Amino acid sequence: MQIPTWDKRIFDLELASSSRAYCDDVLGICDAAGVAITELSTHLQGQLVAAHPAYGDMLDIFAPEPLRGDQRARSEWARDQLLKAARASANLKLKSHATFSGALLWHTFYPWPQRPAMLVEDGFRELASLWLPILDAFDGAGVDLCYELHPGEDLHDGLTFERFLDAVGDHPRANILYDPSHFLLQQLDYLQFIDIYHERIRAFHVKDAEFRPSGRAGVYGGYAPWIERPGRFRSLGDGQVDFRAIFSKLTQYGFDGWAVLEWECCIKDQQQGAREGSSLSMTT
Hints:
This protein is globular. With 284 residues, the chain is of the alpha/beta class. Helix content is 43%, strand content 12%. The protein has helices at 13-18, 20-32, 43-49, 56-59, 71-91, 119-141, 158-167, 180-185, 190-197, 243-252, 270-283, and strands at residues 3-4, 40-42, 96-99, 144-148, 174-178, 201-206, 208-211, 231-234, 260-261. 38% of the residues are buried. Strand 3 (96-99), helix 6 and strand 4 form a beta-alpha-beta unit.
């Protein structure tokens, strides 16, 4: 189970970062239930580490209420959350951690209007300056920081990850959470991606999706709700992702991490998706 860290009712990140006794208690509860922790997740906090002001209102809900409306305070809180996550991961004896990169440049992803010269290079330098102290903290904790490459983030495909890796000097803890659903929706070859980047893949989401182009909308979706978009997430087994080929590729390259089922579907409910997805995962 990948544990979210932004809700103390589930997991107290601050306490876990300073108390091995608390972490031992959490591990004991999980062990008694027959559950293993795969990674901790700071997806919401990671989103706030680097955020263009255009997203202020949309991202405020991810921050504690007293910090909403104050982008600088929100970002400082998010960075501190990542530092705590590094220590908590070490206390739980975890190998990897899951997060998002945030977005300074996403609103410029399509090259119109034309981008000013060096805007992308400057943006990735700034992104690297925000993340390097966090990467160093994870290195000190002996934990890989795995960015889920996801639309809406500056790191959303192979090329953007390469730009970031170059900006952080090939940092050994800058790694990838591989989720093929986001690649299928971008029409990226998710199998060849493994061939190219397998050395940096240290976490894995099993999440399905489908893309059925129409005469009315394409990859960008026309602002349609999920159920009407050509590309949409589906319950595991109902989409187009070839997970047998993915498991073969990952095995070929010696991936020894967890396969974490992530469910999202605009048609089925989560109970049905969990039941069918877990059964399919075992057969795969």
